[in-house]
Amino acid sequence: ITNKRKITKPVLIREVANELKTSVGPLNRLIYGKDNDIPIPILKRLLIKSGLKRIILKDFFRDADFIFTSRRDKVRVVKRVDKDLAEIMGAFAADGNLTVLTRIYAIQKEILERIIKKYNLSVKIQRDRDKFFIRTSKISLRTLQEIKRDNTIIYSLSYLFEIVDADKTAVEIIYDKISRLFGINGRIYFKNGAWSFRTYNKILVRYFRLFGFWYGNKTETVREPPILKDSSLKIKEAFVRGVFTFDGSVKYSGDITVTLKSEFLIEDISKILARLGIKNDYYSKNGMHTLMIDKS
Fold it and tell me: In the Cβ-directed half-sphere of 64, how many Cα atoms lie within 13 Å?
């Protein structure tokens, strides 16, 4: 890059740092060979400037085995959608959440009190040595920038992936699949009458964002993820199996049902079952949508 554009390394470092709105420290360590790990945003920016983005990214996706988080956790690179991953997506569509948790720090407690009042937050102010902080998932990144513009604060973000169900076995099965595919270890917790697998892993969260899932409440809008639209029927069947594992039930009559708030997801499941030759029907009542499979 420096030879092609006839610029010095310090000029390149400042230019990339300004474009990414970051400090020059990480770039200095990378450019001068003092750090072997390259954050993906920096790698992408340097590849664009080099003119080799298309060539090198092709090799990257072919050869990469792991991606590292800033906390030095590593996540296995998943390069294709198989039946296990589709089943994980189905379980997540039924009972999963992606959450961005924000910590806002201020030296003056009064600043946080104003923020709580202005944005109607139900949070407690806590203390961390010489600073006060609040923690919330109710503030968007746009609102956070507004708060930062008007107040002397600093903040940090953490990304939570969670799957919850009353059946511990169901959560264990999905956790085992996540662990095997992504190389992620974690714990299963029991809280408020349900079992959950939770992990603060930014890369896993980004994977599910790429699959088509959104942050926050999705119960009324979730549907078959776009990445599965052109998949084989076997892959779609695995997705449906994941949904039924977490939200399905068998009645005394032998009929199998699943009840969801999202009519979009019910419609998608109904179409997949029909393609599989499985007769089904669904109805809506009081904002809930129930799909039934006849026992015959």
Answer: 16
